[in-house]
Protein 1
Amino acid sequence: MLMEHFNMALVNWSRAQFALTALYHWLFVPLTLGTSFILAIMETIYVKTGKDIWKRITKFWMTLFAINFAIGVATGIILEFEFGTNWSNYSWFVGDIFGAPLAIEGIMAFFMESTFFAVMFFGWNKVSKGFHLTSTWLVAIGSNLSALWILVANAWMQNPVGMHFNPETARNEMMNFWTILFSPTAVNKFLHTISSAYVMSAIFVLGVSAWFLLKKRNEALAKRSMIVASTFGLIMSIFMVVTGDESAREIYRVQPMKFASMEGLYYGETNAPLVAIGFFDRTPSPVNPKTREWAAKIEIPNLLSYMATMNPHAFVPGIHDLVHGNEAHGIISYYDRIKMGKLAIAALKEFKMAKKAANDSTAKAALKTFEANYKYFGYGYYNDPHKLIPNVPLTFYSFHTMVGLGMLFVLIFLLTLIYGVKGKLPKKRWMLYIALWAIPLAYLAQETGWMVAEFGRQPWVVQDYMPTLSAVSNIDQTSVIITFFLFGVVFTVLLIAEIKIMLKQIKQLKDGGQQ
Amino acid sequence: MAEFFKKIFYFYYDGFRSMTVGKKLWIIVIIKLFIIFAIFKLFFFPDFLKTNFKTDQQRSDYVIEQLTK
């Protein structure tokens, strides 16, 4: 079936619904991942020093952690509902690969939440300090391990490895669990995502503490919290930059179209410069982009080549090279991939029919053709290769917003740490305002990071094998539209509830004085 | 053994009883779970392949048909 024959309105509504759910879900998750470790560090200081102020600090942040956890918990379940209803072709296609990681995640989350969460919240003065601290650390480790399995599943979609497609069942079967778990994409995705979550949480702690200092309330709690948050945040933001750099190289290797879109690189170059800051004058035409479509840009010479290959002089293919091919650099054009994809789709159909008719020799020949071309299976749904280009301005701006904010956070952590250690933070009101306003920016960085990963890989739901259009279920789009708006309302209500309850807790925290 | 389970029961029981902000959160969690499972799942999110087909063979035939038509 060609692209033109799919119900694109249904595809787009299904995508919009999934994006809405994932974006809202991701508002809650990173704060849980990072705050859990910040709590564990604070409680460790309490246990080591025996000072009550640290117990008070830990309990305060634990309350905010609990609010975020309670509001956010189970919002991810909706994504799984959507897999079964709206994305049934996709769910069937990947089922065996996703089964194991998601089952581990479910079991782990259940045991973690029902035991160690309870000890963490109910166990003060009921269990020993050591056991309570262990529980807090286990909650942190468990929450992050829980995220690992989801991210491994997502990484497999970006870089499908360790599987074999069974043409008789139309399912991918897991060949090697460890290849999937330790694929470079999975490792980088996990490390970069959790480190960015830690950075966001550190900014959250920093910002709320800055508000206390601006209001001259709970100064002892705020100053100590800021030292912990800025130290943790600084270390994690540097780690985030390193893992981001590694991720970029991995994207270049397995998703060169996404990489080119992140940089708005239409024509490949040797000694390719990195666009540090840039603005499109107008949305570039994917068919015939022009260099003048950049309104302004500041470039760093050779850095893109270096970032992609560790060689500052290397050739980096642009969108045009990928679509039209580049023989000199061994790049197969999208036109050729489409031809091979069509062969694979036709061969799969022929294989299935021959099997039904018990015609073994035809089935064998069809299978051979299918296996030879399966690598580009998903391309076969298209005639026009330009439909295989993601939204370049959206990917470009998301990427540059994420990177720019990441750099800003490094600076914020560095300055707050220096001023904090010198005891000058309460006097640096401009710094406190920046820290406070960095909270929404940290959320923005999280969401744009998600957009780079997910919009940048379009049209693929499973890279090269399955585009979104062949992944959707053949259902009535009205129900998708209704649930899109229902989700919008429910998630917005939840978000407002979270913000209101959190603000109330922050504002009503009894002033513990300056020491 | 009974004493052990009794202790665990009271650990949770006392914990829930002494919650302050937690009570409001629990109400939100319960309402949210009700909406997710009793409304969304029940009325809007049936499993497409499980609902429409009885066997895995039928499901795989259908998906292949969708992927190749």
Protein 2
Amino acid sequence: MKKTILKTNKLSKTFLVGDTQQHVIKNLDLEIYEGDFTVIMGASGAGKSTLLYTLSGMDAPSLGTVEFMGTNISGLSSDKMATFRRQHCGFVFQQMFLLDNMSIMDNVMACGLLVSKDKKAIVSHARKLFSDVNLGEDIFKKFPSQVSGGEAQRAAIVRALINNPPVIFADEPTGALNSSSGSAVLDTLTKVNQAGQSIVMVTHDIKSAMRGNRILYVMDGVIRGTCELGRYENGDEARRNQLGNFLVEMGW
Amino acid sequence: MYKIYMMGKANIFKMGMQGVILMILLLISSLMLNVGLMLALNFQGFLGNMTTELNTSDVFYTFPQARFTEDIRNRIESHEQILSLDVYNSIVVSAEIAGFRDSNATTIFFRNKEITQAVSHWTLVSETIHDVQNPVFVPYGFSTSGGFSLGDQMSLVINDSTLIFTVAGFIEDILFSSAADVQFAFYVDGPMYAELLQTFEQYHTALLFADISGESQNVELFIREIFDEVADSSVTFISRTYEMLVGGRALLPSILSIMVIVFAFIIVVVCLTMIRFRIGNSIEEDMPAMGSLKATGYTSWQIRAGLLVQYLMMAFFGAILGIPLSYIVQPFIRGVIAIQTGLFWQQGLDIPLNLLSIGIIISIVAVLVVVCSRKIKNVDPVVAIRGGAAGRNFKHNYLPLDKTSLSLNMTLGSKAMLQNIGQSVALFIVFVVIAFTGSFFVGMRHMATAQSDAYMALTGVELSDVIVDLHPSADSNNVRDTIAAMDGVTQALFIDSSHVMTNGEMIIAYVMDDFSHKVNPSVYRGRYPIHPNEIAISGIASDMLNIGIDDIWHLGEQNMTFIVTGITQGQGTTGINGPVPSISITTAGIRNISPDFRQMRLGVYLDMGMDVSVFITDVSVIVDGQILSMMNWRDMLEDGNVMITGILVLLSTAMLGFAVIVILLVLYFIVGAVIIRRYRYLGIQKAMGYTTFELMHQVSVSFILPLVGGIISGAVLMMFIFNHIVALVMTPLGVRQSSFDVPHLWVALSGIVLTSISYTTILIITSRIRKISAYDLVR
């Protein structure tokens, strides 16, 4: 029996565009499980990114609740939410969003020092993570503008992992990368997931989605379908077909 | 051209509130510059016009009416320098005016308003009221600094008699209406004048108004000699020259104008710093837009012209709005001027001067924009379109987080400060300038209030408590010894002034037996004379005649040789450093030139707390018959200085207020701009889990060092050069050196207050960060 790490209850998110209300997420009941690599897919404008950021506490729901490891986080103030995020969430964005006025190491430290004052431990942990994502020490002192997109994204993954969050939220992490950089990033995410890290990732890229073990398809603000792919071993044809069939079924 | 105009206009709207703030600051600077220039360039002209309009005479002297015979008039008129002489009557008394002065040191010239004067007449500056009891028309200064209004009762105590008048109107004239002179003309109707004459017949005085050719000193000496021949009366010899009065009255406006203009330029410097900062930001933020403009064919100059038009429009509108405001604040300036001059200064519209103010501000802004926008020339369209990668290349990772021992937010704030070192330095300079200015006005306020003695000392006059003028037949030494032996007397010194001729020119000589007894030595270089062949000369004389210490000067008709031992300073018109060259010389020294010299004036110094009025009464009893007149000198000096200190307090308070407003506006501008510029960073940090408070702390830290450093540096710099600046500002007053105690505690306290206000403002502005959402990044 899998342990639920995230749970929504009648989750709704509405935006006001001009005088018109746009219901992006509608009465959504969803559970995300510990250790899973959950992938959220859907067409553009389906609400997948909105769902990701509402689940992660980056944005507040309009109605309903989000429970994170049994705690309702929906009513928290923005500052309490920020404190919650630093301890429980890691983020990987399509645009990386590294702070370009800081070195790569400082970007990681700026996140790590939010939770712990033990600099030595953070540095040591960061070094290990950098090594895990195949980034050498030469990158530590470089600024984000001085490294490749793939390196920057892997550094962003290290930043997301530095505080050992229960969940990493990734929003199109390979969207701005070329094929080989994208593969390296996906390999990294797969590796950390297989080490026990829960990941929730939004993508519309099938290659990326194949890394997940559970695919959620969002359409018009609701989960239209779920596909269980099992643990990722390699990109075999059977896995690709299973996902392809599911997506066809969903109207992809 | 139209495209460039539209680009400039769009840039202004893009600036939003920051544009409004910049325009407010430009408005303040234009307001102050226009006020300062009006004072500096127009006040003298106004005074000249008033003088012509009122047909003011060159000099006037008092003479006992009872002794002013036809024979004396003929003698006076026969003087070769006297071109015309008009004589009118007055009743000259010392009076205590309830609610205006504490002492009886005010000299009132009661005049019959029904007599029409051909020279030195007066004019009404207010409405008048009729059918009141004992109407009196008083100088305009009583309205602005005395608090009197039309219809108010005015109670005067003269020789223990109390007279009640009703203020029926306010007047102005050149010779008798300045509060600083402590001499006023009060105009009453014919019957009242006759009644006063009956009561105070002994004070019936002839006022001799004369137009003269050449220097007035010889005329004064001539008339004084005649006066002394017949001086056995209650009338005191008073002389005034137009030059002396006008010189004195124009001094405050010139000092005021210097300060206001300097403050205007300080604000302009602040504006320039902000514009420079903003242009730097614009180039960085709008790099893609600039790239696309270049790609579509705009030249660098056209893009720069857009910026130029933007700031010129702001400077133009800010400056043009400041001009009418400079006329709106006229009543305040008029009040300040009236305190010292007693004149109602009405500044009409002066278009050329207004255009000059606008032109100065616009030109400075234009030059700065052209210089600061040079970077645009180097913008490569391709790089710029790709997001302005060339805009900001960080090269040095200051304070690496894995090595620094500071707290996280402190480190991140410090990093931001170091990475934006140009902005930090600009902010530092702004705070140095503002703290310096603020501290100067704190020091000036303190100088005017708590250090009035030191302020009076600047004037160069000796600070005795009572001045005793001896009768020509008195035994001077005996009177001095008698008074010196009285209870409560610290010392009694002869402090005389005389005249010495040299090469046909008259030199004022200040004579003492021993200058070391002076409580207000005004020698600022060298020393006072000790030996009979030594003199000290005034700074103005030193400058005019190019004579310095150890130089030789020949004085007297026998051309006697004197060595210059020191240079003195003092207020230009009433002190030891008049526009006429003056010297300080020992009694033995003056007797070498004028063997008949007699010591006629005693300065008496009393124990602290002693009642001067009681002392004066006692002296008149003890040395009856040997004294011509006595003056409560200290009260007189203090009364005169109440006016000037009042003006300084008013001015310094207003300028301090302006300094605080400028700080608030600057912070709002710069901190607001930084938040906008760091919007993305702040969003990322929020996503990482930073709270609003932590980010506020970070942004505040990035400002705190320039802020605190600037305020401390500005205040410390001011402490070191305060006296130099005071001396510089008061140069027209004959001041060469000042030695005020700088109020360190007050300056420190004002620094703390300034820092607290600034930091609180920063926190308030940075609280906008709470509106920044991490989700905005990805939406």
